[in-house]
Write a structure and sequence with these properties.
Radius of gyration: 23 Å
Distance between the termini: 37 Å
Number of domains: 3
Strand order of the largest sheet: 3-1-4-5-6-7-8
Shape: globular
Number of strands: 22
CATH superfamily of the largest domain: tm_1862 like domain
Oligomer: single chain
């Protein structure tokens, strides 16, 4: 084995995930595709599997590890699984390159891998100096050294490699997981927050990022990172860039042919797809104009859903995030045409209008509520995100957020997800302290309101028949994922292991806890509608 890629994404300080268990990301598979295209014998191993496959890791000539800045604990712990092998860290964790290098990683790939990684691997094989490779960091004699490079990858390097599809089989329960296929990289929101930052800087209201020429919006006179203050995407991965349609279709259909049941078209905002083509050669740095490229979106959705398993209801294509300000009747109608019955995620974050804008959000609170209503009417299932503990939060913003949460629920939101703010390196809100849990802060009334709404949503499932896919045994139950998406269902049946890998119908009988239900196969006998 020439190389192994270890996927530590979303593992925190453990060697396994405690949430988003059913998600298989695109980044590590892309790295594997890059190495294989260069002729390497390489494999991908999820972080949860490193102990089982430790011997393979020790045999590899190179070890590459992908994670986020919140996964540094796991990335440090797995260092024990190899000794004396060149190791390369990457993924969004690169913002902490100095810490990674001091942990013992030999190199860190800064930003996107398409440009620096092939050059780095070539130099390492040749035993040559790496000092001329852009966007690579290593530990010098006294301190970390970071080679400069372009802020984001452009053609001809962009999209020149294809993710490895077979690597999906490396993940436990892959047949029921949500497999992410990249369709847009980067984000069009180059607005900046106007709140006073942790180091005292504050927006000078030059308005370049909101009204200036598109090419100028990457620049800020006082160096405030672009985008919502809590989000690292535009600063780390640049403006929105759409992947060629042919490559997306090939990857999606290959995954469906393999037996994957759920494919997610991965994008910070699916409605950015093709918008960058409307402003070329300028970068897409405006989150509001031009409007969505409906022709490009229809070509994308009609093509990826044109597969026998999708048409037969045996597999599903989903999308995730959208900017609410880009949703209108035409957009909702188009999404409903191809994605009816699937979830879509919308960021509210705060329901206070003044706070909403001050965070750098591209939308208004009213646009969030309207988007939820339009998408619900079009047959989609809206989920809404809220964040507590953000800079600028106070009793007024909490009251207004509770009001907005109730409004989005009335407009049709299926579920409200409440996150705790995490100050990420490389974002405008870097340096702020991590807030206490919601129950110990001014946000407690918001926490309680969200819990009430979500309990009501969970209770509404009781008595319903839903389709699930079995993924693992837990005692006398089969842990199952709802299709196309929803709460986890623990299915009680006499032979739980026989349901693993199969799709079947379940009648929901109760609520275990938030986002976890219990149920029984609807026939209650040998014939459980397996497929």
């Amino acid at each position: 084995m020439d190389a192994v890629i270890l996927d530590c994404l979303a593992t925190g300080d453990r060697l396994r995930r405690v949430s988003t268990l059913d998600a298989i990301g695109a980044g590590p598979r892309l790295v594997l595709g890059i190495l294989k295209s260069m002729g390497y014998d390489a494999a991908l191993i999820p972080c949860s599997e490193v102990k089982k496959r430790a011997s393979l890791i020790r045999k590899a000539s190179y070890v590459l590890v992908s994670g986020m800045s919140t996964d540094l604990g796991s990335m440090e712990r797995i260092r024990e699984f190899w000794v004396g092998k060149p190791s390369i860290a990457g993924g969004p964790s690169f913002v902490d390159y100095d810490r990674l290098l001091r942990m013992g990683y030999d190199y860190v790939v800064i930003g996107e891998a398409e440009l620096p990684l092939p050059l780095l691997m070539e130099r390492l094989n040749e035993g040559a100096d790496v000092s001329g490779i852009p966007n690579v960091a290593w530990l010098g004699e006294n301190s970390p050294i970071r080679n400069p490079g372009p802020p984001y990858v452009t053609e001809p390097h962009l999209w020149r490699f294809a993710p490895d599809t077979e690597a999906v089989r490396s993940y436990p329960g892959w047949w029921g997981a949500r497999v992410y296929v990249e369709v847009v990289r980067g984000c069009s929101n180059f607005f900046r927050p106007t709140l006073r930052l942790a180091d005292g800087r504050r927006c000078i209201f030059c308005d370049i990022c909101r009204t200036g020429p598109l090419g100028m919006r990457t620049y800020c006179p006082i160096n405030i990172p672009p985008g919502c203050g809590y989000c690292s995407v535009p600063a780390l991965f640049g403006p929105a860039r759409s992947r060629p349609l042919k490559a997306i279709i090939e990857e999606v259909h290959d995954l469906l042919d393999m037996g994957v049941r759920r494919v997610v078209l991965s994008a910070p905002d699916i409605l950015d797809y093709g918008r960058d083509w409307l402003v070329k050669p300028e970068p897409l740095t405006d989150p509001r104009n031009p409007p969505p490229n409906l022709d490009a979106l229809e070509a994308l959705l009609s093509s990826v859903t044109d597969h026998p398993r999708i048409r037969g209801g045996d597999a599903y294509v989903l999308v995730e995030n959208i900017k609410p300000n880009l949703v209108d009747e035409d957009v909702a109608r188009l999404l409903g045409k191809y994605l009816r019955g699937t979830p879509v995620h919308i960021g509210l974050e705060t329901g206070d209008e003044e706070h909403h804008r001050a965070l750098g959000r591209p939308s208004t609170v009213g646009e969030v509520i309207r988007a939820v209503r339009l998408l619900k009417e079009a047959g989609l299932i809206p989920y809404v995100y809220v964040i507590h503990g953000l800079p600028g939060e106070n009793e007024r913003t909490v009251r207004n957020t509770i009001k907005a949460v109730k409004q989005v629920r009335e407009a049709g939101a299926e579920h409200v997800t409440l996150y705790r703010f995490t100050p990420l390196r490389g974002t405008a809100f870097e340096g702020f302290p991590r807030p206490p849990p919601a129950v110990k802060s001014v946000a407690r009334p918001l926490y309680e309101a969200v819990r009430r709404l979500n309990r009501e949503a969970n209770a509404a499932y009781v008595g319903r028949v839903v389709k699930v896919v079995g993924v693992a045994r837990s005692g006398n139950s089969t842990v199952s994922y709802m299709l196309p998406h929803g709460p986890v269902v623990r299915v009680k049946w006499g032979r739980p292991e026989e349901l693993i890998g199969k799709a079947f119908l379940v009648r929901v009988t109760g609520v275990v806890k938030e986002r976890v239900l219990e149920g029984v196969p609807i026939s209650g006998g040998d014939d459980v509608g397996l497929s």
